[in-house]
Amino acid sequence: MELDKMDENDWKYHGEGNKSLVVSHVQLSRVLRLLKYPAEDSENPPQTVEQAFRQIQNIVDFSSNVMSSLLGDNFIHSGEVVKLPLEFVRQLSIKVQHQRPAWRCDKVMDIYSGCALCLPNLTSPILHQPTHTPPLCIEIKPKCGFLPSSKHVSRDIKTKVCRFCMHQHYKVANGKWKRRSLYCPLDLFSGNRQRMHFTIRHLIEEPQNNFKIFKGGQCIYSSKEGIDDSMDLSSLLHHLRPYFLYGNNRINCHMSSKAIFNDFIQVLVNALLSGGGGDGGVVTDRRGEGRSFCEASHFSKERIRHGSQGLPSDSVLFRTLQTQMLDTLDIEGLHPLYRRVEQHLQEFPKERTRLQIDGPYNEAFLEKLQKCPNEDDGSVEYAAAKVHQYRVSMTAKDCSIMVALVPSGEEEEDDEGQTHLRDFISSRTPAFSYSVSILDLDPKPFESIPRQLRLDQKIVSYYLKSGGSLPRVSPSPLPGIFSAAEREDCMLLFHPV
To answer: Please, what's the b/e burial string for 222-235 (b: 16 or more CB within 10 A of its CB; e: otherwise)?
Structure first.
């Protein structure tokens, strides 16, 4: 990109979160992520150009120096900070405004600093030469995949029901969503294919903001907060059908909806369990059964007919879960340590820099959280290191996993081994080239910890007050789309790219 020749017409609205808005280039596989401000600050930006630049640079440094080391640099795309022409940013803001969801418009795009984060567009990857079939990209926000076992946990329910399942009751009661999602993160992180297949099915049925599907860079399946619209599974089926027609010795036009969705889920499970380099061994579940099963899950333990709990040690799910589990104290045990640091900073404000509360996110920061002792010695250094661990774990609990799938056409020529592999697969099920990436790796603010404690208390209290309603039997799947029992005969293999 030539920054001095930027044209807003080359960019389109891509999406946005709570803190930033994303636009994508219409031809290049690039996105720009721009900061957002509360609408009341639109005439008076809350930070200087230098502060905006430092905020975005902190995101890059945290991703490349901290999260990359913990999650694996093969999964991470940190991007770079760019300084854009202000007139381009202003025109871009005007262009995308009408495409933004109304409920997001309480914040406005930063048009004053010109600072943005430039990243590859992972929804439209270039894995091979362009083919007739555009790539699929699935975005999953998996959330926390384990139950706490900290002695500081005051409510026993937290050791039995996962945070996500409890939070669903609270979100529906507050009108954020019309229906509860029956997805459970512990099933996804289990490494057991039956449980993973089962819970991904529920992600498709009720995606909320935890599941999206893109085709050729365009979002074709997602959900919107507070809107009571039934997800159009027939439309999704129409998009997916061309990807799963060849192979399998099936008559194309008669391939059932159930078979297409099952094949799609199986492809996704295989990608999530695939290795990203390293030793590739399968790590059995060392958390113990109590921490790997959520009592609110609709998956019955009795249904597991084979397969052990465990994830390949170089898979994206294993690395994400290990990073999440840096939260060893739970928010209830962490908050007193936060208060220790906060009180120390009130007395010695210049210590904020030495303790790296706001960065820099460099090797020294990573070393502090990796070498934190197990026992509390009463020091502010120990407390700060545990706070750093918690903040990193929160980032891993809130990240997004992107799985890009490109159909491996039989007409492509490759090395002999891969051609043989592709020919073998084509007689059974479609083969895909794939890439797996992790997004949304921003550092969580130090000051957000008290809010996290209040939210945790509200979620648990509401869940207990509402009776919890633990499931006794599995709900009926959507008619004609999913089968009650997961298919066992669908084996899809991958070759890494």
So the answer is: bbeeeeeeebebee
> Residues 403, 138: contact at Cβ < 8 Å?
yes
Mean pLDDT, the chain, as a whole number?
Answer: 83
Output the pLDDT for position 249.
45
Strand partners, 11: 25
250: left (phi over 0), alpha (psi -120 to 50) or beta: beta
Question: What is the tens place of the pLDDT at every residue in 463-481?
Answer: 999 877 544 444 444 444 5
Confidence of residue 418 (pLDDT cuts 50, 70, 90): very low
Specify whether the CB–CB gap between 481 and 233 falls below 8 A: yes
What are the φ and ψ backbone dihedral angles of 12, each rounded to 5 degrees?
Answer: -135, 155
- List the strands of the sheet with 494-496, edge to edge: 218-221, 211-215, 136-140, 400-407, 432-439, 494-496
Residue 135 has pLDDT above 50, yes or no: yes
For the chain, the farthest-separated pair of C-alpha atoms sits apart, in whole angstroms, at 74
Asked whether residue 429 carries a pLDDT value surpassing 90, the answer given is no
Of 290, 288, 292, 294, the closest CA to residue 165 belongs to 294
pLDDT of residue 415: 37
Residue 18 burial (CB count, 10 A): 7
**8 A C-beta contact, residue 213 and residue 236:** yes
Query: Is pLDDT at 38 greater than 80 in this prediction?
Result: yes
